Predict the structure.
Amino acid sequence: MTPVHQERRRRLMAAMGEAGCDAVLVYGNAWQCDYLRYVTDFPPVEGEALALFFADGETRLFVESAADAARARVETPYADIVQCEDLTETVCSELGRLGNRTIASAPATLMPFGITGSDAAKEIKDGTSLIDGLLLVKSPVEIEAVRRAAVIADEGYKIFMEACQVGRAEYELVAEIETFFREAGCPENFMILGSGGVEVRGMHPPGERRIQAGDLVTTELTPAVDGYYAQVCRTLVVGEPSKAQLDAFDVYIEAVEAGSAILKAGVRASEIAKAENDVFRKYDLGVYCTSEYTRVRGHGVGLFVDNPPHILEDVDTVLPAGATLIVHPNTYHPDVGYMVLGEATAVTEDGYETFSTLPRELLSVAI
Amino acid sequence: MRRGLLSWDEAEVPAAVLDARVEQLRAAMAEAGLDAMLLYNNFPRPAAVSWLTHFIPYWSQGVLVLPASGAPEYFVSLSKRVAGWIDETSHMGEIVSTPRLGADLAKRLEGSKRIGVLELNKLPGGIAHPLLSGLSGVELVDATDMYRAVRHPADATEIAVSRKAATLARDCLNGAFENAAYAQTGPLTAAIEGPARLAGAEEVIVEFAADLDQNAALRRIDGNLDLGARYALRVSLAYKGHWIRIGRTDGTERLDDWIASSLTAILDGDTVPGLGAPDVTLEACMGSAPLTEVQALPNGAVGVANLTLSVGGQTHLVSIPVLNEDGTVALLI
């Protein structure tokens, strides 16, 4: 068992003790496995899995395929691996056998209906907030994993810049970065990008569009180390940046700095979003902070790419020391197109620590 | 997360083929008395929606509504700024961006009496419960068996694109070993995955049993492991929504060609001289997952045969893309 997982188990058992919980049932899949990974350290590669974790540390991991079962026996030798044809049916039977024990399940939104709608789950409590609290506050060992992911994200961005040449297709740029990450032993990355000019309104998975001189190229790179993601968002210009591009990007730099300036333990997510958005409002760009143009002004990172809290003016989550997040005022600018900026950061008692060494500026690559 | 090339080339997957699949499912719905069918997708479970519409999600989740008539509609929790991209890469009707999937689906389905759901038990509770509470007098039924009954045999398009995926995986795997030797998993993974992504693969997963004499479990490696004297690797590759796997054992005499040539005999349970009792796992696309373990390949299905074999006292792992042609499982390429 890795040190980081030993520590997670200790924290989980303590939280369960405080909540009077005998067991937690968690679900995860290859898209979102943060709850499952926190509890078991098992990441589904293609499919999905469920796990029961008991107050004494006993762990039962339920998987569907023989291949997943074989892998789980190697990767989580401390768990009892149950391979079953029907995950929900098997877990419901198991829950039925647990009698009147106090069980909490998470995450509520993704837990399969075959469980949440069954008689076996009628007495189960929603344990989402219990585990959300654990996911939010990272221990020093967890922060170290995020830091290592941030280092590889920066290195990946340098590869991205080298690859970003006129004539190359978007998906070819991503192929270069993925090759670098795999060579470095990094198995997972979340990445979207955008390329073009004022017509570009956001980022998307890579397509066949080819890079042209003068393009703004945006990306968010999010590699994972030991399951922990770190994100870096940067914008570059292919060729010399224009004055309009430089002027526009100054707003994003100012917004990141405004959001970061108030970042410390005790600040609310809403306050950070307001600080970022106020910069846009100052320049009569407030409309570009709405959902018409942008999703969030940042978000948590950790065992999922997009952990709570979302940095939005209506999210009142108080950020504790040990929270890891990205402040990113990514949105559309009417003069030049979509721009992004931000990097993974850890909240401390009196401020924050940022992990990226990339400059907070509009970058460019020579033609 | 999916970050390979996600695009729709109508020359590869014609709209008429997708329409024909929709009509095939719709005929089954009519027979089952369904007013509509719901098919959930996220990126680990993209297959049913991509089979019908070519849409492959990179993130988030959605539900395809197939009404009794009219184009399929897609309810997705991505922002509406992504709707243009969804529209460009797929063949469907209205795209509804909403963070309240269940509640908005319930509104859309008002007036329906009987709705089928693919893999109802796996529908996330965060969608299923608001959907149920928003619908009154509606029967939600599991339509998994009905879907499976129409999913096979594969049409010519599915076979052709699967062959392209298999060829790409085979060529990238073989190419990685041309004039190169590897001591660790990372560089070998990169040597396979890089060219595959450059050639347009939508997803590539390379798994290793890095020291086959110690353990035969195939794992995606987090970090870099030393390769043992004998190791196995398996490449799972997706191209335009079509998944295949190719795997082989290295560091010893390469037997996969010989094993492949004996495939039919192995799958038929015949004795193959020199081979111990094989352990065979077959996979095919049966529902929302790209590949699911099955007892037998449905007639006409594209799939994968994963073999664990003992040859001369040594374990060999081999994965081979296959096609069930009228009851005979043959090599796909």
In short: Chain A has ten helices and 18 strands. The two ends of chain A are 49 Å apart (CA to CA). The first helix of chain A runs from residue 3 to 19. The mean pLDDT of chain A is 96.
